[in-house]
Amino acid sequence: MHRYTYPCPLRWADADAYGHVNNAKFLQYMEEARTRMFQEMLPADEAGRRQHAFVVGRSIVDYRAPLQYREEPVDVHVWVVRARAATLELGYEIRDAEQLYAEATTTLAAYNLDTGRPRRLSETEKEFLAHYTEA
Domains of the chain: which residue ranges? Predict the structure, then answer.
């Protein structure tokens, strides 16, 4: 299994009054990593992306340590826990070399924005996701 790694920059506005990254920002970091990972899989044109979209149905985050604001990015690792006919579950770690800050999962549904309905994963999507699937 390969993990997709996104070096996520921290923004000054991400920090709360205590100087650490607000917990809600972790979901945004996961979204950024997932979106960049999926860029390789999604169609290049807007119409194709609308017909091959994904929507989040569930997110679970386990916070392991506070992440202090800093200039260096934090790594967001993403992998596929499982892919089914129309849904997939992604796993995440938000970490650096010394510390694990959060572990998380999201469940996504394959979705056609034009019809407003769920759809099946395409063969191209299944092949792409298999590269990042846990053994």
Answer: 4-130
Q: Which two tokens stand for residue 71?
A: 């200039």
Whole-angstrom Cα distance, residue 107 to residue 66? Answer: 25
Place of tokens 């796993």: 91
Query: Which tokens sit at 101?
Result: 């800050």
Q: How many residues does the chain have?
A: 135
* pLDDT average, residue stretch 83-90: 97
pLDDT confidence band for 117 (50 / 70 / 90): very high
CA–CA dist 93, 85 (Å, integer)? 25
pTM: predicted TM-score of the whole model, two decimal places: 0.94
One CATH from 3.40.190.10, 3.10.129.10, 3.90.1170.50, 3.20.20.70 for 4-130: 3.10.129.10
Query: What pLDDT sits at residue 134?
Result: 82
CA distance 74 to 29: 9
Alpha-carbon span 38 to 80, nearest angstrom: 12
Helix (H, G, I), strand (E, B) or coil at 78: strand
Count CA atoms within 13 Å of residue 100 on its CB side.
Answer: 10
